[in-house]
């Protein structure tokens, strides 16, 4: 499954970097607010998210590793975990381009593979996953723009 997007944020590249490079700040910016993050070390995190299921939500534990940190322009990460007995593996990156002193373009890509019983459902869940990612980035944009406006005031 391949997901991607791009958004322009009216905030400095450093402010955007400070948020996206810190999993706790990035999760706090999410519209879902469903992630719990435990720091293992400077580049490793254990992330517990609540995934919707047919009758009741289930917790999914993912190991997140920040693999490429090139402040303040690029971040890449990998995830590994399991849901319903099947493996989840993924990688993604965010590139930040300074458009001006208070304007940043965030371009992101993510690729994920689901195994086990969910392996054949990639095409069916790609649309909802893309929509959730877009909503997450919209929430991130709104938060960062509000912080930037507050800092200017």
How would you portray this structure in words?
- With 153 residues, this protein is an alpha+beta fold.
- The protein has one domain: 2-Layer Sandwich (Alpha-D-Glucose-1,6-Bisphosphate, Chain A, domain 4).
- The protein is built from three helices and seven strands, in the order βααββββββα.
- The protein has helices at residues 13-20, 23-28, 122-152; strands at 2-9, 36-41, 44-51, 58-70, 74-83, 86-100, 103-114.
- The radius of gyration is 16 Å and the shape is globular.
- The model has no long low-confidence stretch (mean pLDDT 87).
Topology:
Blueprint: E1 2-9, H1 13-20, H2 23-28, E2 36-41, E3 44-51, E4 58-70, E5 74-83, E6 86-100, E7 103-114, H3 122-152
N to C succession of SSEs: EHHEEEEEEH
Number of individual domains: 1
CATH superfamily: START domain
CATH domain class name: Alpha Beta
Which stretches of 5+ consecutive residues score pLDDT under 50? none
Query: How many strands?
Result: 7
Main sheet specs: 7 strands, antiparallel
With strands numbered from the N-terminus, the spatial order across the biggest sheet is 1-7-6-5-4-3-2
Percent of residues in beta strands: over 45%
User: What would the principal axes of the Cα set say about the shape?
Assistant: globular
**Helical stretch tally:** 3
Question: Could you say which structural class the secondary elements and strand pairing correspond to?
Answer: alpha+beta
User: Remind me, CATH topology?
Assistant: Alpha-D-Glucose-1,6-Bisphosphate, Chain A, domain 4
N- to C-terminal separation?
Answer: 42 Å
State the share of residues found in helices, binned by percent. Answer: 25-40%
At CATH level 2, the architecture is 2-Layer Sandwich
């Amino acid at each position: 499954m391949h997901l991607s997007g791009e958004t322009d944020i009216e905030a400095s590249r450093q402010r955007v970097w400070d948020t996206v490079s810190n999993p706790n700040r990035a999760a706090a910016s999410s519209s879902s607010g469903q992630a719990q993050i435990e720091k293992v070390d400077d580049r490793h995190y254990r992330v517990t998210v609540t995934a919707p299921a047919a009758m009741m939500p289930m917790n999914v534990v993912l190991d997140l590793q920040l693999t490429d940190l090139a402040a303040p322009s690029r971040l890449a990460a990998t995830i590994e975990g399991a849901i319903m007995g099947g493996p989840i593996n993924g990688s993604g990156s965010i590139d930040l381009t300074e458009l001006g002193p208070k304007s940043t373009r965030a371009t992101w890509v993510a690729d994920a593979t689901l195994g086990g019983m969910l392996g054949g459902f990639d095409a069916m869940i790609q649309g909802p996953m893309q929509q959730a990612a877009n909503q997450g980035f919209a929430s991130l944009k709104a938060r960062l723009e509000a912080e930037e406006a507050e800092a200017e005031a």
